[in-house]
Design a protein that fits this description.
The complex is a heterotrimer of chains A (232), B (316) and C (490). Chain A has 232 residues and is mostly helical. Chain A has helices at 8-29, 33-57, 63-88, 101-123, 132-150, 154-176, 181-209. Chain C is mostly helical. Chain C has a domain at 329-490. The chains are: A mainly alpha (232), B mainly alpha (316), C mainly alpha (490).
C-alpha cells in the first residue's frame, strides 16, 4: 500500500510521525536544556496528535482517551515538571558541550536505517496503514537510547528516557491501535512515578557531586579499590 | 518541435528579464518591513544599465581568466536556469538536461567565480573564495540529497518528470517532500548568499563572502556577475516554488496556459520573496563557524527526507 | 480468588499504612506482620492450586509454575523482614539514615513485594511489564537510601539501565500484541498470556522472533544477564543488605519467570519454522556468557556484597542456560535451582549483613576472623558459601547435578564449559571466604546482636531439599515442568 492510495487523514498521520522523528534528532543535537525540554514537549504533542488522527481516521475509538492521556502527560505535565526542576536547580541557562555532535547524528541516521531493516519483514505483510510508522517509532526509541548514552547531563538523560517512552507510545498506536486500557494506564502511572523519582534523584546527585554531570559519577568501577567505610 | 524550442528560449530569456525584478521586490519588501520607503521596484534594472555602460577597469595583476570569468559565470548560471521549467512544463530541454546537470552547471559557475576571486591576489578575494568553497562543499551534498529524494519519488532525475509526477498525484502530504523542502530552503539561503549565511547588503566588511570575490570587478563585468547572482536567486525560487507547488504551471504551449503559468509563477515568487524578506529582517547573520552546523541541518533534513520516503511512502 | 486477593491486598494496604505510620519501633513489627499475612495468603493459594490445578479470573492466573514462586517470594519476604527489623534499627540508631528514610524503606519494601506478586500472578503481559517496572521504581529509592555518593551513583545507574532495558521490553510487548491482533479478535484479550498460549502456533513467527529479542534484552537486563548486568553489582553493594537479599532472591527470579513465560509463547509460534529453537538458543547463549563472565569476575572482587552479587549473576546465567536447553530434566533442575538459589542467596546476604556490621566495612580484606569473634556468623557464612558453591549435601548440588545430567544428555560439549565454570566460581568464592572466616580477627572486634533464625531456616530448608525432596514439592515442580515443556519428568 503506497502513500498515494491513502486518504489525506492517513497521510497526515505519516507526516506527524515523520515530524516526531525529526524532533528526536533535534533533541539529540540540542545543547540548551530549556530548548530541549520544549522540543520534547512538542514531540509529546505530536505523538498525541498521531493518536488523535489515527482515532479519527480509523475505528479505534478508545484512542481518543489515549490521545488525551498522552497530551496531558507527555505534552504538558512532564515538560512542566522538568521545567520547574531545571529552574529550581538553576540550570535554565545551562548549555552542554556535546561530544562529537556530527558523529552522533550520523549514528542516529544509521539507527533509523537499522530500525527499518529490522521491522521490514514484519511490515511486509499487509496490515493497517499505520504499519509504516513502526519503524519510525522504533527509531525514536533507539535515538532516545543513543541520547542516554551520549549525554552526560542528568536532565538530558532523562529527556532521552522520556523520548524513548514517546517512541513506545507511538509504537503502541501505530502497530496495534493502542494497548488495552489497563496497560496504558499502568504505563502512564509508571512513567509519572519515574518522573517524580528522577526529580528526587536530581537533587540527590547534585548533593553528592555538586553538579548534574553524570560522567562524574564514576566511583563504582571494577578496577577501583574499595576502601570507604560503608554501613553495609 | 521548433515551436517548443522557441518556448524554451523564451523562457530562458524570461529568467534573465525577471531576475532583477525579484531582487527589487525583496529589497522593497524588506525596506517596508524596516519602515523605510526603499528604492523603486525597478531599481536593479537601472543599476545594471548603469554598470553596463560604464568603463571596465581591470587590475594589472589580473590574468585573462579574470576577464573571461564573468561571461562563463553568467552563461553557466543562465543555462542552469534554462533547465528549470518556469511557465511551461513539457520543455524539450528536459531531454538533455536533468537535475544533475543543473547542479553541475551551478558548480561550474561557482568554480569560476571562486577562481576569479583568487585571480587578482588580494586578501579579500582569496578569503571570499575560500569561504565560498567551504559553504558550497557543505551545501552541495545536501542539495543533491534533497534532489534525490524528489527523484526517487518520480523515478526520474528529470525536473519535468518530477513536476508532472507531482501534478499527476494531486495533493499529497508527503513527509519526504516536507523534509526536502526544508533542506532546499536552507541550501538556497546558503547558495544565494542570503542571511543568515551571508549578508548581501554589506560591502567592505570582514564577514562578507560573495561580495569579497567581486571587489575588483567593475563595469560590464560586475554587471554580469551581479546579474548572474540574481538569476541564481530566481532559479532557486522557481525550483522551490514549482517543484513543491507545481499547480498552475502551463501543461501545454497554448497562449492561455502560458499566460496563466506566468501569472501563477509570479504570484508564487512574490510570496517567496515576501517570506525571504521577512526572514531576513528577523534573523541575524550567523558567525562563519556556525555555518557548518546550519548546512549539516540541511543535510540531515535531506537525509530524513530520503529515509522517510523509503520508510513511510513506498509501501510493500 | 479470596486467597489471591489476600496475598495481593496485604502488601498493598500494608505499604500504604507503613508510609503513614509514625512510631518507628512499631514499623518493623508491622512490616513482619504484613509479610506473615502475605505468606499465609500464599500458602492458602498454593493449597487451592494443589487441589484444583489452576486458579484464573479477573486477569490473574495462578498455576503450578507461578504458585511456587509466589510462595517462595512470600517466604523470603517474611524471613528478610525478620532480619531487617533489628538490622534497620541498628542502621537508624547509628545515624546513617533518618527516621523518614526508614519509613520510606518499610513502605517501599511492601510496595516491592506487591509488584513481585502482581508480576507473578498476572495473566496479562502488559500488567507484567508494569509490575516489573514498578519493582524498579520501588527499589531505586532504597538503593540510594544511605545517600553516599556511591549509593546515589549505584541508584542512578540502576534506574537508567533498568529503565532502558524495560523500555525495550515494552517494545517487545507491543510487538507481541501486534502479532496477537491477527489471531485473537477481542482486542482486550490480546495481551492475555493464557489466550495467547492456546493459539501460540498461529502467532506470526516473524513478528514473534523480533519481539522475543526485545523482550529478552529487556527482561534480561533485570535478570542480570551479561552484558546488561552492569547495574546489578552496584545496586547490591550500595543498597541496604535486606534489599540485596530480596533483589537477589526475588527480583531476578521474577524477571527470569517473565522470560520463561514469553519463551513458551515464542516456542509455540516458531515450532513450524526453520528455527524452532531460536528462543532456547538465545537463552543458552546469554546464560552461558553470563555464567562464565560472572565466574571470572568473582575473583577480582574486593567488596563482599559485590562478590555475592556476581555469584547471583552466575547462578541466573546457569538457570537461563537450563531453561534455554529445554527438556523436562533441565527445566525441572532449573526450577529447583531457582528455589534453592533464592533461599541460599538470601541467607548469605543476611549473614553478610551481620558480618559487615561486625567488621564495620564491606571491604573483603578487612573482614577477618569471623569464626573467632562470633562463631554463629562465621559458620553461617561458611555453610552458606559451601551450599551456594554446589557442595553436597545441600540442595544446590542436587539441582546443579540435574542440570549437568541434562546437559550431558542433549549437548554434551557444554558440560565441559559448565563444569569448568563451576570450578572457577568455586575457586573465586573460596579464596575470599577462607581468610574472612578463619583469618586472625582484628583487635577489638566485638560480637554484634544477630538474629540467625532466617539463616538457619533457609539453610535448613536447602539442606533438606538436598537430602530428600519432599513428595509434594516434587509433584509441584513436576507439574510446573509439565506446563513449561509439555512433558513431565516423573
Amino acid at each position: 500500500m503506497s502513500l498515494t492510495q491513502l486518504p489525506v487523514l492517513q497521510q497526515f498521520v505519516l507526516l506527524l510521525a515523520a515530524l516526531a522523528l525529526f524532533l528526536s534528532f533535534v533533541l539529540l543535537a540540542q545543547a540548551r536544556l530549556v530548548a530541549a525540554i520544549h522540543a520534547f514537549a512538542w514531540q509529546g504533542v505530536l505523538v498525541s496528535a498521531v493518536t488523535l488522527v489515527v482515532a479519527l481516521a480509523g475505528t479505534a475509538h478508545h484512542l481518543y482517551f489515549s490521545a488525551a492521556l498522552t497530551l496531558a502527560l507527555k505534552g504538558l505535565l512532564i515538560p512542566w515538571m522538568l521545567h520547574r526542576l531545571v529552574r529550581r536547580l538553576s540550570l535554565s541557562r545551562h548549555t552542554e558541550t556535546l561530544r562529537w555532535p556530527a558523529l552522533v547524528i550520523m549514528a542516529a541516521v544509521l539507527l533509523v536505517i537499522f530500525s527499518y531493516w529490522l521491522v521490514e519483514p514484519m511490515v511486509a505483510q499487509d496490515l493497517a496503514f499505520t504499519r509504516n510508522i513502526v519503524a519510525v517509532s522504533l527509531a525514536v526509541v533507539l535515538i532516545g537510547l543513543l541520547m542516554m548514552v551520549f549525554r552526560q547531563q542528568a536532565v538530558a538523560q532523562v529527556l532521552g528516557f522520556m523520548s524513548m517512552e514517546n517512541g513506545l507510545f507511538l509504537a503502541a498506536v501505530s502497530a496495534t491501535a493502542g494497548m488495552p486500557l489497563v496497560v496504558e494506564l499502568g504505563v502512564a502511572f509508571d512513567v509519572l512515578v519515574a518522573m517524580v523519582l528522577f526529580g528526587v534523584f536530581f537533587f540527590q546527585i547534585r548533593e553528592s557531586i555538586d553538579s548534574l554531570d553524570v560522567d562524574r559519577l564514576n566511583r563504582l568501577t571494577e578496577a577501583v579499590e574499595i576502601t570507604g567505610e560503608r554501613p553495609g | 518541435m521548433i515551436y517548443s524550442w522557441l518556448i524554451a528560449l523564451f523562457q530562458a530569456l524570461l529568467y534573465v528579464a525577471l531576475a532583477p525584478l525579484l531582487i527589487g521586490w525583496v529589497r522593497k519588501v524588506r525596506a517596508r518591513l524596516q519602515n523605510r520607503r526603499g528604492a523603486p521596484l525597478l531599481q536593479p534594472y537601472a543599476d545594471l544599465r548603469k554598470l553596463l555602460i560604464k568603463e571596465i577597469r581591470v587590475p594589472h595583476t589580473a590574468s585573462p581568466l579574470f576577464r573571461l570569468a564573468p561571461y562563463i559565470v553568467f552563461v553557466a548560471t543562465w543555462l542552469a536556469a534554462a533547465t528549470v521549467p518556469l511557465v511551461a512544463l513539457d520543455l524539450p530541454i528536459a531531454q538533455i538536461a536533468d537535475i544533475i546537470v543543473l547542479v553541475g552547471l551551478l558548480g561550474l559557475a561557482r568554480f569560476f567565480l571562486a577562481l576569479a576571486g583568487m585571480d587578482v591576489g588580494t586578501a579579500f578575494g582569496g578569503m571570499g573564495a575560500s569561504r565560498e568553497m567551504l559553504i558550497s562543499a557543505l551545501a552541495e551534498p545536501a542539495m543533491l540529497m534533497a534532489v534525490f529524494t524528489l527523484a526517487m519519488t518520480a523515478h526520474s532525475t528529470s525536473l519535468v518528470s518530477v513536476m508532472s509526477h507531482h501534478l499527476a498525484d494531486g495533493f499529497l502530504l508527503r513527509p519526504s517532500y516536507l523534509f526536502a523542502f526544508g533542506a532546499l530552503v536552507l541550501v538556497a539561503l546558503a547558495e544565494c548568499s542570503r542571511i543568515p549565511v551571508d549578508n548581501p547588503t554589506t560591502h567592505l566588511e570582514l564577514t562578507m563572502v560573495h561580495e569579497a570575490m567581486l571587489l575588483e570587478y567593475s563595469g560590464r563585468h560586475l554587471a554580469l556577475m551581479e546579474w548572474a547572482s540574481q538569476i541564481k536567486l530566481l532559479l532557486y525560487g522557481v525550483l522551490i516554488a514549482n517543484v513543491f507547488f507545481p499547480w498552475g504551471i502551463g501543461q501545454d504551449f497554448g497562449l492561455l496556459a502560458l499566460g496563466i503559468g506566468l501569472v501563477v509563477v509570479l504570484l508564487k515568487l512574490a510570496v517567496l520573496g515576501l517570506a525571504l524578506a521577512t526572514a531576513e529582517t528577523t534573523l541575524a547573520k550567523m558567525r562563519l563557524f556556525r555555518v557548518p552546523a546550519f548546512l549539516n541541518l540541511a543535510l540531515l533534513l535531506a537525509l530524513l527526507g530520503l529515509l522517510s520516503h523509503v520508510i513511510l511512502e513506498v509501501g510493500a | 480468588m479470596t486467597a489471591l486477593l489476600l496475598t495481593l491486598l496485604a502488601p498493598l494496604l500494608g505499604g500504604l499504612t507503613l508510609a503513614l505510620l509514625r512510631p518507628l519501633a512499631l514499623a518493623g513489627w508491622f512490616n513482619l506482620a504484613v509479610s506473615l499475612i502475605t505468606l499465609g495468603g500464599a500458602a492458602w493459594l498454593a493449597w487451592l492450586v494443589a487441589v484444583s490445578g489452576m486458579i484464573a479470573g479477573m486477569g490473574f492466573r495462578v498455576d503450578a509454575f507461578n504458585v511456587y514462586l509466589v510462595v517462595l517470594t512470600a517466604f523470603v519476604g517474611v524471613t528478610t523482614s525478620i532480619f531487617s527489623r533489628p538490622y534497620m534499627r541498628h542502621v537508624c540508631s547509628t545515624g546513617k539514615i533518618s527516621a523518614g528514610s526508614l519509613r520510606v524503606y518499610h513502605s517501599m519494601y511492601q510496595a516491592f513485594m506487591l509488584t513481585m506478586l502482581v508480576a507473578l500472578t498476572t495473566d496479562n503481559l502488559g500488567v507484567l511489564w508494569v509490575a516489573i517496572e514498578g519493582a524498579t521504581l520501588a527499589t531505586v529509592l532504597l538503593v540510594s537510601l544511605y545517600r553516599t555518593p556511591e549509593a546515589v551513583e549505584a541508584a542512578w545507574k540502576y534506574f537508567i539501565l533498568c529503565g532502558v532495558g524495560i523500555a525495550l521490553a515494552l517494545f517487545g510487548t507491543v510487538l507481541t500484541y501486534f502479532a496477537a491482533q491477527h489471531v485473537i479478535a477481542d482486542p482486550a484479550a490480546g495481551l492475555t498470556w493464557s489466550a495467547l498460549y492456546e493459539r501460540a502456533h498461529e502467532l506470526n513467527p516473524t513478528v514473534m522472533r523480533i519481539a522475543f529479542v526485545f523482550l529478552l534484552v529487556g527482561y534480561g537486563t533485570k535478570v542480570g544477564l551479561v552484558p546488561m548486568h552492569q547495574w546489578l553489582p552496584d545496586a547490591h553493594s550500595e543498597g541496604p543488605t535486606p534489599m540485596s537479599a530480596v533483589l537477589s532472591g526475588l527480583l531476578l527470579n521474577v524477571a527470569l519467570y517473565a522470560v520463561v513465560r514469553l519463551k513458551m509463547l515464542v516456542d509455540g509460534s516458531l515450532a513450524e519454522t526453520a528455527t524452532p529453537h531460536l528462543a532456547g538458543s538465545l537463552l543458552m547463549g546469554f546464560g552461558l556468557v553470563s555464567f562464565t563472565v560472572a565466574g571470572l569476575f568473582l575473583h577480582r572482587q574486593r567488596d563482599i556484597k559485590r562478590m555475592f552479587s556476581y555469584s547471583s549473576i552466575e547462578h541466573m546465567g546457569l538457570m537461563t542456560f537450563a531453561f534455554g536447553l529445554g527438556g523436562s530434566l533441565a527445566t525441572f533442575g532449573a526450577l529447583l535451582h531457582m528455589l534453592v538459589h533464592s533461599l541460599t542467596k538470601s541467607a548469605i546476604f543476611v549473614t553478610v549483613g551481620h558480618a559487615t556490621h561486625l567488621a564495620g566495612t564491606q571491604a573483603i580484606e578487612r573482614i577477618r576472623g569471623l569464626i573467632r569473634t562470633q562463631p554463629a556468623i562465621g559458620w553461617s557464612l561458611l555453610f552458606g558459601v559451601v551450599a551456594i558453591a554446589g557442595f553436597p549435601p545441600f540442595g544446590v548440588f542436587t539441582s546443579e547435578f540435574l542440570l549437568l545430567t541434562a546437559t550431558m544428555q542433549s549437548q554434551p560439549w557444554f558440560t565441559v564449559a559448565l563444569v569448568s565454570g563451576l570450578a572457577v566460581a568455586f575457586a573465586g568464592l573460596f579464596r575470599h571466604l577462607h581468610p574472612m572466616v578463619y583469618g586472625a580477627a582484628p583487635e577489638g572486634q566485638q560480637p554484634v546482636q544477630a538474629n540467625m533464625l532466617p539463616v538457619l531456616l533457609h539453610l535448613g530448608l536447602v539442606l533438606w531439599l538436598g537430602l530428600s525432596i519432599p513428595d509434594f514439592l516434587a509433584t509441584w515442580l513436576d507439574r510446573a515442568t509439565g506446563l513449561i515443556t509439555g512433558t513431565r519428568l516423573l
